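Quick log. Single chain, no ligands specified.
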Amino acid sequence: MKRLILWSALFVLIAGLTLLPWLMLDDAPAIEPPAQFRRTDLAWVKSLFQKHDPRRQTPDVVQTIHLDETELNRLLNYVVELRPVDGVAAELMPGIATLTATLTAPSNPFGRYLNLTAEVAEVPGGVRIESLQLGSLPLPGALADGVARLAHRWLRRDETYASLADAFSQIRFDENQAALDYRWHPMLLTQMERKSAELLIAPEDQARMLVYAERLDALVKRHPRGDTIPLVEVVAPLFAYARERGGSADAENRAALTALAAYLSGISLPKLLEGDGPSFRRAPRVLLSLNGRRDFAEHFVISAALTVNAGSRLATAIGLIKEEEDANKGGSGFSFTDLAANRAGVRLGERATGEAAVRVQQRLAAARTNADLLPDFRDLPEFMPQAEFDRRFGPIGSRRYQKAIERIDDRLAAHPLAQ
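-> predicted structure:
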């Protein structure tokens, strides 16, 4: 009898392990990924962050972020660009929100997608999970909410998570509307910087970045503070050092480009990864130029670093948004020169961490002039106000605009770094 019970229990366990994946996984996604990464969405996200920039907030005063359903989904689609999620969407109703997300499952015989749907209700001081469904498998809301609360209590052991959780005091749902109350604390930004680096950058990559940041600091200290020097004077020795270090060419290239971009952006990597104060500093001690222009060096290097860390689509979109903003009133005007430097940086980032990583590292180490880094694009139209840009090239995506982009790409394709 005992043997029969044991065999029955084993059969139930095996059947359950087989049935659960079949119920949880689907052949079709519940939420399709965004068909196209739209620059207008990214521009809106940027404006939202600028509006609620914590550095401009009065400490310990309750602030509120209001989002309608369309805006919330815009924000969620931005998250899709940054995280391994195929699609995500929210539906807002009075007192409750329905969140649906789709993830691609590893290769298996049960289904290609894991679709998750959760109903989240507002409660005093937070939210409660009312129901959760994994594919066709419904889970009791009380169980899902209990697990979430246990996870929340466990995560509060982390100082940064606890500070962030305490900063957000209430979330409210209404018909097509959501509002989030928060109270900002000055040290929270620094805590979030440290935790983001800890979570997003592997320890071995942090160590590499610090090595290149130290090497770069030694290179610029050879010059008087405030000098402007050609970008190649630090790129060539930096990548020659990368060759000497050996190891994975794409990992070394990624670390070197990230360290260089952080320097140009005024970010101290040692403070970001190891310190206990803000990582932002003022201008770099020595300025870097490319084809006689400091802005070219910034566009080129920062686009390359964005590409190796976040992907080429995001880097390209950010570069284009910057030029569209410049074309509007108050900006310096739309510049195909800047856009060309952005596209060159994206292409460098793609090749520096792809199959051509070793060859790109060799080329950069052997560079002697800025012409070895970037074609001369100073003959391209620049500083165009919106009206002039529209008259000469039409809207973004028009045939005249695309021809200008094709000329840039043809020139990049003929450059030695692309060979």
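The chain has 16 helices and eleven strands.
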